[in-house]
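This section describes the prediction task in plain terms. A model, or a person checking by hand, is given the sequence of a single protein chain and must write out its three-dimensional structure as a string of tokens. No templates, partner chains or ligands are provided. The sample shown here is typical of the held-out split.
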Amino acid sequence: MSTDRYQSPLSERYASKEMQYIFSPDMKFRTWRKLWIALAETEQELGLNITDEQIQEMKEHQDDINYEVAREREKVVRHDVMSHVYAFGVQCPKAKPIIHLGATSCYVGDNTDIIVMTEALRLVKKKLVNVIAQLADFAEKYKDLPTLAFTHFQPAQPTTVGKRATLWTQEFLMDLEDLEYVLSTMKLLGSKGTTGTQASFLELFDGDQQKIDRIDPMIAEKMGFDACVPVSGQTYSRKTDTRVLNILAGIAASAHKMSNDIRLLQHLKEVEEPFEKTQIGSSAMAYKRNPMRSERIASLSRYVICDAVNPAITSACQWFERTLDDSANKRLSVPEAFLAVDGILDLCLNVTDGLKVYPKVIERHLMAELPFMATENIMMDAVKAGGDRQELHEKIRELSMEAGRNVKEEGKENNLLELIAADPSFHMTLEELQASMEPSRYVGRSREQVDAFVKNVVQPILDANRDLLGVKAEINV
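The expected answer:
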């Protein structure tokens, strides 16, 4: 490992080897050669004088790229595509005259970008499906465990631990729906020429329009795509990059929301992310168990959300049929968004697979607040015993304020039940009031909602994607 130059944390610390390979030089330049072979085969099949021997020679050298030759040539010509055309020709002397015939640089550059993003989206989908599966299991496991819910981070009507997990799951499902749609619309550029008019192919095929109409569909089929874009300038529309990175930003937002909730719950000591036996939480405070994985999810997610602005600006700034002010930005913004989301999803897989729940702490927090939330039921029972609803409402309000003061100003336990029992207007003993403090009475339809959500919404998606399940994440640091 070189220590005298900058190294991207995305590759050194966060992204998986799978995602790193998708954006590697090998993936890029091998795809270039596959595209040149697909072009040559198409041109041969449509009648150009290209031999089987030339195509076979290209196939024999599809993967053994002579990088050094390409690098030396680029120093001379200052053009990456023509350097690799030259290097391929050195290895394939018979095919040299027909490599890249009729094409422009964007034929390999842009088509490869689409192929790479498509592969990367498939990997993102696989990991996203597994995050959803793990969250669904967690929701099912804890669907009956009452917990204090919060609005404005203030105690509110109870929910269950499992029901809260369905809220995280639902947002990831929305991301999956968006991802699948965009993935289904990915199209190659095809071979459109320098301004998208296919003028060079008019020359090559002597103006035969029917043959030219067949070029793009044939290339798409050879490269495993349904179609090429119907029209273009020199490049595919940079709006495609915008759509793709918006998907990644959506996943980042969902992950960030979940990680924030987990961090807050870990502060409350109710839920805790995985913590390894030898892990150090703080260099100064040995007892600390910081939610570092959830914090890293939040950190990387903010990066992706901000990064998604890049393609939108780039798309907006393209002039006419092509400008090159997209190139440097694309080389950074697109791969880094995918690498970061890959790291985010690995962290999500790790965290959701090992979330530790502390029911006793959850119960203590809930029981400290439940008397306030049970006042409506207490009041109704008192009315049934002959009390006046309006008078009881005012007394409940006053007693609740007194109990609140005891908790906040004097640090005492919540004594609202004792205060109510001591008031003869309610005709209820302390034992009767305590008997009504059963948390499951106050969680509404949480269990039923979890059951219906997992059965009717999540499970059909998992069934449709069962071949993607079983992914486990490796966290490097």
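For orientation: The mean pLDDT is 93.
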